[in-house]
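Per reviewer request, we include the raw input and output of the structure prediction for the construct analysed in the revised manuscript.
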Amino acid sequence: MPLPEIRLSHISMAAICGLLFSLSFRLNQYFDEQFIYAAGISLLFLPAGVKLLAVLVGRLPAILGLLIVSIYLGAGIWPDKPMSTIGYFALVGLLTYPIAAFGLMRVFGIHQDLRNLRYAHIVALSLAASVLNGIVHNLLYLTQGVTASDELWRKSAAMALGDFMGCFVVVALFHATMSLLRTLRRNLQRD
């Protein structure tokens, strides 16, 4: 089976998604004082929304860009952890999003180009990705001594809430922007 062709558009998508994820992560740090729950858990985590949106729009190239940046950012968050653990955190935290998103896209019959994406879909995609990520991430944290067993469900719920809020804000803004652009285009075509 031949390998897929690497295009400049794939490299650009990976770079743009990685850059947006990194910028959203840095922006989110300004909210840490108000929203930080515990190490690695914010009650408003905008990068989760950027991650979900990137996965929905950019597919595999976006996932690769997000993975590279997640490992880079993880090295700054967890300087005491080996790179293998940081890579594992990044990979597991990233893969929960496409698993949830593509699974629900199939269930709801959402087209690959997202043309039939509706507001209710955004809520469901955000919720599914957030809950799956919160649980899986904290199970991984449990194995690495970051989360204690008696804190597992509290921290999972807190992470899911923060991811949901971030997903909902970012993806809803994207959806509203795209709807506005479609309306403007239709109005310009009528004139």
